[in-house]
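Q: Please design a sequence for this.
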């Protein structure tokens, strides 16, 4: 049978030292330190793009964005005019 809660608390008080508290919190700190160390190692393995590649892809993204912006504007304008013409033709507006 288990010891009473008073006995457990007394045993716990005797075994709780500064070292065990450090060990308990150190587990979290050690895991965090290990995680950050692994992140740093992974970032060292990353192949980072050069400045020419960054410039080229930036230009492509801007040009494609402008193209689709103009395309959607023209499509919206055309469909809006078509709907307005239909409403005028059939007297709905």
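A: Design:
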């Amino acid at each position: 049978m288990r010891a009473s809660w008073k006995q457990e608390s007394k045993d716990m008080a005797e075994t709780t030292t500064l070292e065990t508290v450090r060990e308990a919190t150190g587990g979290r700190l050690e895991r965090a330190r290990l995680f950050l160390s692994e992140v740093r190692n992974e970032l060292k393995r990353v192949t980072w793009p050069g400045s020419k590649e960054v410039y080229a892809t930036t230009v492509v993204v801007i040009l494609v964005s402008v193209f689709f912006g103009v395309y959607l504007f023209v499509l919206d304008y055309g469909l809006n005019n078509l709907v307005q013409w239909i409403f005028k033709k059939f007297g709905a507006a």
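Q: Thanks. Anything notable?
A: The chain has a mean pLDDT of 84. The chain has two domains: 1-46, 49-93.
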